[in-house]
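Annotated sample (chain length 120).
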Amino acid sequence: MFLGVALGALSSHALKSVLSPEQLGSFIIGVEYMIYHGLALLALSSWNFKSEKGIKNAFRCMIAGQILFSGSIFLLSTKSLHHMPIGILGPLTPIGGLFLLLAWGILIWKVVTEKIISEQ
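Output written by the structure step:
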């Protein structure tokens, strides 16, 4: 969440004047997905399930998805600034998206098949 807020501030101030509207829009999509999934990780950390195995896998997939999806978008949208060879990053964005979908699928499966243990 810290990184999402910091990169959001960067995009609205420093990058606004050096990136095209399309590049800036892509960068902001990466920030939004990072923040959405950061909030989801915070929420998930407060839930208690009978088995932690699936939730740990959902966490891992969500973190990997954030790194691959948002990270590749950040680097791809700012390539005019850093001039690094980033040809390999194009396929990482959808792979990251698949990890995010897998995380949500695991979570949905756990909610449907397991009751959340209430703390009473």
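Annotation: The chain has a mean pLDDT of 87.
Annotation: The chain has one domain: 2-113.
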